[in-house]
Design a protein that fits this description.
By secondary structure, the chain is α/β, with parallel strands linked by helices. It folds into two domains: 119 residues, HAD superfamily/HAD-like (Rossmann fold); 95 residues, 3-Layer(aba) Sandwich (Rossmann fold), CATH 3.40.50. It has nine helices and 15 strands. A six-stranded parallel sheet has the order 5-4-1-13-14-15, with helices on both faces. α3 packs parallel to α4 and α5 crosses α6. It binds magnesium ion (MG). Magnesium ion (MG) binds next to loops.
Length: 262
């Protein structure tokens, strides 16, 4: 008996594919809530705020509370506001990250006179934005990234992830960012601390080995890999010991059944 009381769910490829819920996801969430399990949504996505993530989930038929959402935009804003108060930030991102920064009272600037460069997914990424961030980092700005994801699943396929933009930044500056999203255990520790919850009772669920499963390893919590997103069954054979999830499910729909057996 493991006794899981807390489940950390990834969004893209686990509960959602683009704007559409994965089949059985709504029922799985309801069942787990019915078991009295605490649910959190831990996502590397940076284009939404906590508030707009709740709306996005609701539009797909999935219920969430704002306090349950830990998106990388929120984590970056919380990190900067706590650790670097009063510093100016230049963002390569969409509205989500900027709104979370402004909500925490962080000053967002549009030129290279920034103390911190924060990078996430930006579907309007340009050479001009790259050049501004490059100049800021050459002036000594701190480089923070939401995640280094290669790609993310959408309806009918995949799109390039924030990692492609972070790679461009790394190449021209020669610097490595502080990556706050998964596989960093930062988000897990933040949410467990804020909610006074225990690692031993927590399970992380996601579709990517390099982020979701490794977050479990890095944070010392158990992990479930679902096969509805990036990772495929064939990938499982190639895994090294430290990349192996504790459990593999075809989809999140099987999660309540797994939890009832643990
Ligand atoms: Mg995912």
């Amino acid at each position: 008996m493991i006794g899981i009381k807390v489940v950390l769910l990834d969004l893209d490829g686990t509960l959602l594919r683009g704007r559409t819920a994965i089949s059985g996801a709504a029922r799985a969430l309801e069942q787990m809530r019915g078991f009295g399990i605490k649910i959190f949504f831990l996502t590397n996505a940076s284009t939404h705020t906590r508030k707009s993530t709740v709306k996005k989930l609701k539009a797909a038929g999935l219920f969430a509370r704002e306090s349950e959402v830990f998106c990388s935009s929120y984590m970056i804003a919380d990190y900067i506001a706590t650790k670097y108060p009063g510093r100016k930030v230049f963002c390569i991102s969409e509205a989500g990250m900027q709104d979370e920064l402004l909500d925490k009272g962080v000053q967002v600037v549009r030129d290279e006179h920034a103390d911190i460069v924060a990078v996430g997914l930006d579907r309007k990424f340009t050479y001009e934005k790259l050049a501004t961030a490059f100049k800021a980092i050459r002036r000594g700005a701190l480089f923070i990234a939401s995640n280094e994801d290669m790609m993310f699943p959408v309806e009918g396929g995949f799109l390039p992830g924030a990692g492609a933009i972070v790679a461009a930044m790394k190449k021209c500056t020669g610097k490595k960012p502080i990556v706050l999203g998964k596989p960093n255990r930062y988000g897990v520790e933040l949410l467990l601390r804020e909610n006074k919850l225990k690692k031993e009772e927590t399970l992380i669920v996601g579709d990517v080995i390099e982020t979701d499963v490794l977050t479990g390893k890095n944070a010392g919590i158990r992990s479930v890999l679902v096969l509805t997103g990036v990772a495929k069954k064939e990938d499982l054979k190639k895994l090294k010991m430290r990349e192996r999830p504790d459990f593999v499910l075809e989809s999140v729909a099987g999660l309540p059944g797994l939890l009832s057996k643990l």
